[in-house]
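S., here's the first fold you wanted:
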Amino acid sequence: MIRESKKPLWSLIGGCALTLVLIMPSVWAAGTIEFGENKSISLGAGLRTAYTSFEDSAGSGDDSSDFDLQSLRLYVSGQIHKNVKFTFNTECKGCVFGQDEGDIGNGGEVDVLDAIVQFEFSPEFNIWAGRMLTPADRIEMNGPYYGLNWNQFTVPLLPSDQTGQAGLLGRDDGVTIWGTLNKFQYAVGAFDGVEGGPNQDDNILLSARFAYNFLNMESNPGYYTSSTYYGGLGDIFTLALSFQSQSDGTGTATEAGDFDAVILDALFEKVLPNNDVLTLEAELKSIDADLSAAALADPSCFCLFDGDSSFFTAAYLFNNSESFGRFQPYVRYTSNEPNAGTDSDLTEVGLNYIIDSHNLRLNINWSSGDANLTGARGPDVDGLSIGFQIQI
């Protein structure tokens, strides 16, 4: 984690970027600078911002409305050898910029999102080490920028998405071995998982994802995923099975319990004769968190969801090549079913306006229900969101 409250951090980042642009001799792609054989560096950024309005969620019986900078990311990646690459990404979620130049709100914190050394030997076998996404289900591997709908995190998430002692935004410190064998893709990793708390014996988190592409191959960096390719890869049908497990991965220091998760996800995308695109996405998730009554009653508990969840999404992209962008209406239904507690669900109906695939899009959506990423039943509210996403 990087901590700065005044302008040195952002001045340093901007200064480094400008210096690289000025001194590197050969630019061979947008944002990528080459400075020798098998040596290059790429710079980029991502931003998601939205206006949200929720019915009766302010606690006073009134509606609540907010303009939020939901995510701001700086991307740096490069290559230093034909088989060695690196990635360094930062995240400032919900940043609020103050009066002083470079001053960032929320404690002035910029989080290290990814810091990876990438040994890439062949399509079949590669090793990444550092801080990275733990192999998991598709919505975890998408992140917010490559999802189909705007609010894809309405099912209970895995430990590395809980923030704090078990990771950040799906990332954790560890190592992943991944590759592709014909139409089969695999990613297997070992990570810190929850540290301290219930995990007094320092057990590691084991994580894996196995996917089979029945039609065309999906194409993403490493073992990452997307929930739509807007028809750019032709017909897609992929089934994937994910696992995560950690002994003493939930509970408290005195009431520790094991954590296990099994997830099946599917993506189907069909390019129709008129070049419109139909996209269907679904997931079934089963999480076993061995929590005692004493652990659940303890405020210090690292308590994970225990139960089942699922979602289904359908989208239709109108491929009007003569217009500035393309309309993609969609609907998603989410259901969370804890083993103890009340079931919850949520429906999101939305419209994407796709200008440059995942790099530039607008969204408007309406949601109604009581499901959320904790898996526990929340307030039953209706919400409206208008969002904008850009990546360079």
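And the second, which I think is the more interesting of the pair:
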Amino acid sequence: MNPSYSLKDLIIYFLKLGTWGFGGPVALVGYMHRDLVTDKKWIAEEDYKEGLALSQLAPGPLAAQLAIYIGYVHYHLAGATLVGLAFVLPSFLMVLAIGYAYVAYGGLPWMQAVFYGVGAAVIGIIAVSSYKLTTKSIGKDKLLWAIFLIVAIITFATGQEILWVILLAGVIVWFVKAPPRWLASQAQAIVPFMLAQIQPVATESRLWQIAVFFTKAGAFVFGSGLAIVPFLYGGVVTEYRWLNEQQFLDAVAVAMITPGPVVITVGFIGYLAAGFWGAVVAALATFLPCYLFTVLPAPYFKKYGKHPAIKAFVDGVTAAAIGAIAGAVFVLGKRTLVDLPALAIALVAIIILLKFKKLPEPLIIAGAAILGLTLKLIV
């Protein structure tokens, strides 16, 4: 069956999402479902669920992996490659420009003021996005709802996505809905395997050190969005001392106020550490593992995805993944909505999004940025 869209259409969509898609992985996966599954109907619900499950199981940035998988669905390796580049490139160019301004003008004191408003509005956006994703993906299945709620609570309580809990959810649904007589079948071939720990090669080249460190960040850090921050801090501040504390905090702020995948902050860090080529190497090293973790098992997901055992496993992982996303909304909210003005901005964003369903999110982000600057100037 021929797709109802061209590869060019998909590339243009992801260029736009990479340019205007604020809110981090929670919002981005919601936008993809809303736009590509519900509105445009380019991607089937089952294909989306398979992609979300695979992205959740593999290490690396969730939203980028899901975008790569969606590109693979109808256009295979070329689609995965071009869509991945289209999604990441706009935000990479933005952090490159911000990095240049940061170095040239000695820091970005306005960034925290902008983030105050933007961060609050983003919480409202991802809350609505998470709500829509949950209601459309889980349906009325009581087992999936129970898994969703349990994982959401665990994520909120621990402040992180726990891979073994998500895997366990898949196994539980597998055993309940498709008894394990399929354990010996070919369907096991889709289970992704972790790569062996990459051992750094002794070298004095900073670019080589950046390549090795950020490859490890992309290949061995599970969890979406800011889950990579503790790993980055340990390397770039404590071990290599490429950045100081304030520069690292500014790098995290850059991740939150730019659209596209949050992990693109590695480009900003790479720029501060080694200029333009440092940014390029850091970004390539971070995203290459997630690309490989997506395109290598994708054919098996496509081939065996309709098998009852695999479908049950994917349903369980999907419910757990969405629960983790919902829990992450509350974690981010607790960290971001620290006072009444921030809480008010988030609530207003939620009300506006629910009342005006076609209103573009970038307008809300722009308004929140202006409001944040204004509030900080007054205070």
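Why I say that: Residues 7-194+293-378 form one domain. DSSP finds 15 helices and no strands in the chain.

Talk tomorrow,
H.
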